Amino acid sequence: MAGNKMLQFVTVDRQTPEKREATDRKTDFGEIYREFAAERAAEQAGRCSQCGVPYCQTHCPLHNNIPDWLRLVAEGRLEEAYEVSQATNTFPEICGRICPQDRLCEGNCVIEQSGHGTVTIGAVEKYITDTAFENGWVPSIKPRRERTESVGIIGAGPGGLAAADVLRRAGVQVTVYDRYDRAGGLMTYGIPGFKLEKDVVMRRNDQLAEGGVTFVLNCEVGSDITFDEIREKHDAVIVATGVYKSRELDGANADARGVVRAIDYLTASNRKSFGDAVPEFDDGSLDAEGKRVVVIGGGDTAMDCVRTAIRQGATSVKCLYRRDRANMPGSQREVANAEEEGVEFVWLTAPAGFEAGLQEAMEGGPAVTGVNVQRMRLGEPDATGRQKPELIEGADYVEEADLVIKALGFEPEALPTLWSKPELEVTRWGTIKADFRTHETPLEGVYAVGDIVRGASLVVWAIRDGREAGEAILAKLAGADVPVIAAE
Ligand SMILES: Cc1cc2nc3c(=O)[nH]c(=O)nc-3n(C[C@H](O)[C@H](O)[C@H](O)COP(=O)(O)OP(=O)(O)OC[C@H]3O[C@@H](n4cnc5c(N)ncnc54)[C@H](O)[C@@H]3O)c2cc1C
Ligand code: SF4
């Protein structure tokens, strides 16, 4: 029985946690949503209609038991809600913050379809685990019994860390190798603090280290250590290296100073948030302060760049995208946030090259002064059903800019070449081939998870892969054929 605290959606309106005013939030890198108060979380959780077939759960990549933890929150049974929530999700407080809920759980909430506004699932999920940490309900992952088998994980992003968590809890000796100096992958150095504060990620890194996961940081596989050396050291290896090769732009002056890659720009900004010395930021190359900034792209990375530039004190920030608002890949929630903060979107525009000049006596060649912009219109749909942008002849103009950030997406690095391992099979897109349930590659004992298999995707999918690969390895160690998780 759901009890009388549920089904409140007819009388209680949907409310997200309070959002900070744009004038306030654009002055720092703190998260823009405040935490729910306990009564408000319970009230919002009580809006769930406790469907017999919960579509939210089906459309959550982790199949989180959403109706159950919503009910427990509505009843004030928070510690139990935490137990249920963490049973299927390694980092619920992170997914609660940054999953595109409108496309996943909340987008399939039945009460939304009846016109009452979806349950705020993500915000409640975040609230449950933040509260659990505050109250000391999150136990150590230290296993009761140690095992002798060891697993090496290459890449400390959400995919690698989720696998590390599953394996370490079962007593396996786990070593995570990463070329960066901090664990967390894109959660640490890609996604800005206004979406995901860094303390939240570091808290999880600390929990894993305290539980006995060994981190070997500043260690690039392929140069500091070979892939074969890692294989020799461990009984199984998981490749969780993500996708980092930026898509580039051609055209005149494409290599001018001031035309930069989104990943370099965001990494520098995130490093500054940690208080690191970042020479490329300190010399102004990757700092938007006082500049006219143009960001090219329409995905979530572009949204993160425009909003970072606002916070750094750019004089203007424009986002060029070759389709229109309705056809952009980035989340509408993030577009709205960016507009509130002062970003201007210039729809149906594409860069054809750059203007550059030697206006300042500086070393390093010409600096960008503008983007040659072509105007587009939407034509017939292509094979995927999306309308194709077409050029409007003779409508070009120059958009003045001092900093241009290319946010056109990412592709996999050529791992078989970089690691001298041609046997590591890749698809025609360069992603690693792996079994979709066990995540084992055709190389025995080598598994692959996250973006390096899926292409640029989401944290929640990387977590799912990592958990499944961890379970598959445990099943194999136990002599079973079928992974324990993979619940569909
Ligand atoms: C700017 C930006 C914003 C995003 N925003 C969101 C969002 O809001 N919500 C969301 O769900 N997803 C978001 N994503 C996507 C999400 O971050 C990724 O899908 C997710 O991090 C992939 O996890 P992963 O573990 O596969 O790889 P990653 O997080 O990329 O981690 C890979 C790790 O492998 C390491 N590595 C790579 N090569 C080597 C090597 N040779 N040797 C040693 N270490 C190596 C890297 O240093 C890195 O730490 C965003 C991505 C970007 C770029
Ligand atoms: S993990 Fe993501 S999709 Fe699943 S319930 Fe949480 S916010 Fe929704």
Molecular structure report:
It is globular and about 65 Å long. The chain folds into 3 domains: 2-134, Fumarate Reductase Iron-sulfur Protein, Chain B, domain 2 (Orthogonal Bundle), CATH 1.10.1060.10; 145-243 and 412-486, FAD/NAD(P)-binding domain, CATH 3.50.50; 249-410, 3-Layer(bba) Sandwich (FAD/NAD(P)-binding domain). The longest helix has 19 residues, at 459-477. The strands form 4 sheets. The chain has a 5-stranded parallel β-sheet with strand order 3-2-1-4-16, sandwiched between helices. It has a 5-stranded parallel β-sheet with strand order 6-14-7-8-9. Strands 10, 11, 12 and 13 form a 4-stranded antiparallel β-sheet that branches. The protein is α/β, with parallel strands linked by helices and 488 residues long. 33% of the residues lie in helices and 16% in strands. It is built from 19 helices and 16 strands. The protein has helices at residues 22-25, 38-45, 55-58, 66-74, 78-88, 92-98, 110-113, 121-134, 158-169, 186-189, 198-210, 227-233, 262-273, 279-282, 300-312, 332-340, 415-418, 451-454, 459-477, and strands at residues 150-154, 173-177, 214-216, 236-239, 245-246, 259-261, 292-296, 316-321, 344-347, 349-357, 367-381, 387-391, 397-400, 403-406, 410-411, 446-448. It binds flavin-adenine dinucleotide (FAD) and iron/sulfur cluster. Flavin-adenine dinucleotide (FAD) is lined by residues 98-99, 154-160, 177-180, 185-187, 190-191, 195, 220-222, 240-242, 266, 300-301, 304, 450-452, 457-460, 462.
